[in-house]
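go over this chain:
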Amino acid sequence: MSTIKYANAVAAIRAMENTLMSRGEIEQLINSATKNEFEAVIASKRSGEDLTLEGVWEMLRGYAPDCKELKILLYKNDFHNLKAALKSKIAGKEPDGYYIRPTNLDLEMLYPAVSAKDYEALPAYIRNVAEEAYELLTRTLDGQLADSLIDTAAMNEMRKAAEKSGSDFMKKYVELTVVCADIKTAFRCAKMKKQRSFLEMAICGTDELGKDTLISAALGGVESVLSCVENSVYADAAKLLAESPAQFEKWCDDVIMELAETARMQAFGAEPLAAYYIAAEAELKNLRILSVCKESGTDKETMTERMRKLYV
């Protein structure tokens, strides 16, 4: 589809941006004294509508049903759902409670397909890793190893799809997603003293932080990983990771939001649609963080520090 045909979809998204929380409204939530006051602020913004990612996704797909670029945003959910189906099969449990929505997958057929080893029934981008992960799980019963295999496959498939799309925005989105995952994995593996064989499976690598470079750093220990990241274009991430994993997670979310902001003023194309989904995802994360903080009695300064970057 020509990008100009998304003009109506983008116009609709511009109107929907008014339903996103502003900084002032986030501050109202932080300063709310009671749960009722907290919920009243949200209700006044939503006008009785409950914002969910499933709802946002259905709205976007309604405006642009054939927009392939949007599907890349859900690959992380798709591969998580594959993990859920595989582990549920091994454990003899129903997977429904472990699925994440929205997803590109038909969840009604995912578990039956995995259970019957009918991998041809799965989408091509997830088919091979489903079979490989199932064999790995049944052979080793190592859930962490299988998770790493699936996570790496997810990032590689995201990269392929972004390249195929030709969208610079989606390519950068995937690059940042992979970088954040790789840094986190290298840091954790260094702390746990994981072997090279595990690292080879768990780390993808990017142009800025190559796979071999990160693996060597992880084998050298935590300080080696921090030094490696500090000497890259992601030096800010190293400082935050050294201070707190939570701060690093916030950095990851914020750099994705900074990317989303670059698409905000575009009049055509898939980028503004993807940016809106990213914004809605970040807002819901902020609301979850605030809700947990309120329940645990967290002070206002800490809540403010934990807030992710806003789109509006």
Notes: The first helix runs from residue 7 to 16. The two ends are 29 Å apart (CA to CA). The domain at 73-166 is CATH 1.20.1690 (V-type ATP synthase subunit C fold).
